[in-house]
Amino acid sequence: METKPTNVKIATKWAVIYTITTIVITYGTELLNLDPNSPVKYLSYLPFIAFCFLAQKEFKDQLGGYITFGQAFNTGFKYSLFSGFLLAIFFYVYLAFLNPGALDKAAEQQQTVLAEKNMSQEQIDQAIEMTKKYGALFGAVAAAIGSLISGCIIALVTAAILKKERSPYDAVDTTADEPAV
């Protein structure tokens, strides 16, 4: 019995590759002492888009070069979902344990922005306290939701690019082995 190819393994594989790439980019920007809010942060979108496309393309190749829009989108959606989950875990561990100084730096930047908005010192202190207390959790949730939303948009676009449905003429002729009557 022939088994149908599954896109879960493919989506998971590319999500793991993307997460490893994100870890390298995160530590690379830290090592180079680049501002995380600089335009360099947009570099991480390129592998996200590329790996979504590659996941869909790999599934298309497993299906014999044909894929429907729904199959391609489904693969991209699963990739985005798994990427978001893995990124949430990484960002939580990173912000809570590996680099809690990043939250302190963000709190300092937040303090400046809130002061410019003429907030009272008491309100600013409450906001800073919340950032330090729950920042890792908020970062993880934002990464998960952001990956899923942006991934869905990317998956829609790449699915439209990759879709190639079988025409009736591409169908396999099963009657070729039967003798003519």
The whole-number mean of residue pLDDT values reads: 88
Largest sheet: none
Give helix and strand order, one letter per element, not per position.
HHHHH
How many extended strands? Answer: 0
Structure, explained:
By secondary structure, the chain is mostly helical. Helices cover 72% and strands 0% of the residues. The protein contains 5 helices and no strands. The chain has helices spanning 7-31, 45-62, 69-98, 101-116, 121-162. It is elongated and about 70 Å long. The two termini are 29 Å apart. 27% of the residues are buried.
Strand and helix map with partners:
Elements: H1 7-31, H2 45-62, H3 69-98, H4 101-116, H5 121-162
Helix pairs in contact: 1-2, 1-3, 2-3, 2-5, 3-5, 4-5
List keywords for this structure.
181 residues, mainly alpha, 5 helices, disordered C terminus
In short:
The protein is mostly helical and 181 residues long. It is built from five helices and no strands.
